[in-house]
Amino acid sequence: MGLTKYKLGELIELVLKTNSELRYGPDDVRGMTITKEIIPTKADVTGTDLSKFLVVSPGEFIYNPRTHGKRIGFGYNNTGDTFIISWNNIAFKVKTSMKDVVLADYLFLHFKRDEWDREACFQSWGSSTEVFSWETLCDMEVDLPPLPIQQKYVDIYNALIVNQQSYERGLEDLKLVCDAYIEDLRRKMPCKPIGPYIERHDVRNGPNGTKNVMGVSTAKEFREPTSKVNRNELDNYKVVKPRQISFVQTTHNEKVFAYAFNNTDEDIVVTSVNEVFSVDEDKLLPEYLSMFFNRTEFDRYARFHSWGSARETFTWDDLIKVEIPIADITVQKSIADIYKVYKDRKGINEKLKAQIKDICPILIKGSIEEARKTKEA
Q1: How far is CA 193 from CA 188, 285, 322, in A?
Q2: How many other C-beta atoms lie within 10 A of the C-beta of residue 282?
Q3: Radius of gyration of the chain from Cα atoms?
C-alpha cells in the first residue's frame, strides 16, 4: 500500500470540551507560538472567567486562527498534562475512527513545516485581521503513507527531540550553578547601588548610520524586529555600541525586565524609547551585571518597582538604585566565564531546535518517497 490522499476534515474534529466546572485555574492556561510551541500564557488572566476556556488533553492540537505575518500560532500537546486555552482559539484532535490511518505525532510533523504555514496564510482571509478558519483547515489535503512508515519517521523525530532535551537539561544545570554563585555573593557581601558604575548614553544613528536595527526581546536578547521597520529611516534610532546594554522601560506587557547586551563587534540601533548604557569595566563587568538581570528574582524586582497607570515603566532612575554585590573584578570574571559557557551552549541549543524544525519537511518527504517505493515494489 502506497500513499492515500485525504482532506484534513476527514481525519480531524473539533475539541469542544470547556472548563465549565473550573477544574483548571490560571496556572493551567496556555498559549502557542509561531514556532509551534505551547507556552504559559503571557496574558493576565486574573479575574477572567475561565469556564469558557477549552480543555486540551494530551494528543490534541491547538491553533490561533488569526495569522501573524507568515506564520500560524500552533501547538501540539505531546505531554502527559491537560491544560486550557482561550475560547477564541481552536482546539482539535484526530478522530477516533481515523487513528488507524494517521498518527497525531506524524500530523504534527506535517504542520511544523514552513510549507504548511505558507499555504495556511495564503488561504487566510480578512481585511484588518486575516483569519485562517477551521473550515479552511479541514479543506486542506494531505498525503498519508501507511501507519508503519509514519511511525518510523516519528521515531526518528522523537529521538532527535530526546537528545536536544537532554542537552537542554544540562544547560539548565549550568544556569543553576551561575545562580548559586550569585546567591552566595549576596549572602557574603554588602550590596551597592549600580548607579556609580554605569553611564547613560543617547547617541542617535544619523543619516549615515548603521542599518543593523534590532529589537530587545523578553528572552533578554537582541532579535530581529517583530514589526516592519523602514531601514532607510533610522536617523533617530539610538546606537548601542559593542559591550553596551539596552533595556525596555515598559514592564506591563513584557512581564519581565527586557534587556539585551551587545556582545558583538558591531553597532546596533534600537528604538529611541529604549535606554542605552555602558558599564565601568574596571569595576563591574557587563556579563556579571547581565547575570543579575537574567534572574527571575530581578524580573519580580523590576515589576514591583515599576510605576504608572496606563503603562507601567521601570526607568533609568529606578535602574541606578538597583543594588548588587560588587565583587572583586577577578571573581566577577570567573563567574562571567561560567555565564559565557552557558550563553554559548544556549546558542547551540537554539540551533539544535532550529535544525530539528528544519528536518520536519525532510522527514515528511522521506516518508512519502518511501511509501511510493513500497507501492511500486
Answers
A1: 16, 15, 5
A2: 8
A3: 24
- The model's pTM is 0.72
Q: Which of 37-46, 93-102, 208-217, 290-299 has the lowest mean pLDDT?
A: 37-46
Between the alpha carbon of residue 18 and those of residues 62, 109, 117, 198, 246, the distances in Å are: 14, 27, 28, 51, 43
pLDDT tens digits, 193-225: 999 999 999 999 998 899 999 999 888 999 888
Cα torsion 146, 150, 153, 159 to 10°: value is: -140
Give the 3-state secondary structure of residue 324: strand
Contact 252, 312 (CB under 8 A): yes
How far the first Cα of the chain sits from its last, in Å, is: 10
Give the DSSP letter of residue 125.
Answer: B
DSSP structure class, residue 29: B
Contacts of 245 (CB under 8 A, 6+ apart): 259, 260, 261, 262, 276, 277, 278, 279, 286, 289, 290
Query: What are the tens digits of pLDDT across the range 66-105?
Result: 886 678 999 999 999 999 999 999 999 999 999 999 999 9
Tell me which residue of 96, 25, 36, 28 sits closest to 56, measured CA to CA. 28
* Cα 216 from Cα 271, distance rounded (Å): 9
The torsion defined by the Cα of 166, 171, 174 and 175, in degrees rounded to 10, comes to -130
C-alpha dihedral (198, 200, 205, 210), degrees to nearest 10:
10
DSSP conformation letters of 56-74: E-TT-EEE-SB-BTTB--E
The 8-class DSSP code of residue 313 comes to B
**Distance separating alpha carbons of residues 160 and 154, to the nearest angstrom:** 10
Q: What is residue 37's DSSP assignment?
A: -
**Strands (DSSP E) found in the chain:** 4-7, 12-14, 30-32, 38-40, 54-56, 61-63, 74-76, 83-85, 90-94, 141-144, 191-193, 198-201, 215-216, 222-223, 238-240, 245-247, 259-261, 268-270, 275-279, 323-325
